[in-house]
Amino acid sequence: MSGLSGYQRAKVRLANLANTQKAISDAAINIQGQNNQYASALSNMEAQLGTQAAQRDLQGRIFDMERLDKAHAARQ
């Protein structure tokens, strides 16, 4: 950068700083987007697991009621 005036050197430094800040900002935005995708996938998985647990619980209760009905019928 020899032969440049003080103004030109400052202009180059400011341009480099702006480019660096933009790169950092772009990286942070990309990271946040990826984190949002991970959070969405986690929420979907938790919802699926909750639904499956509720279905298993319901099936277990139905089985218990059927078994209770059979035991009661056998006593009669």
List the helices and strands and how they pair.
Elements: H1 6-75
Summarize the structure.
With 76 residues, the chain is an all-alpha fold.
Q: Unreliable segments (pLDDT under 50, ≥5 consecutive)?
A: none
Proportion of helical residues: over 70%
Q: What fraction strand?
A: under 5%
Distance linking N and C termini: 102 Å
Main beta sheet, described? none
Output the number of helix runs. 1
Task: Write down the oligomeric state.
Answer: single chain
Structural summary, described in words:
By secondary structure, the chain is an all-alpha fold. It has one helix and no strands. The model has no long low-confidence stretch (mean pLDDT 94).
Features:
76 residues, rod-shaped, mainly alpha, 92% helix, single chain, 1 helix
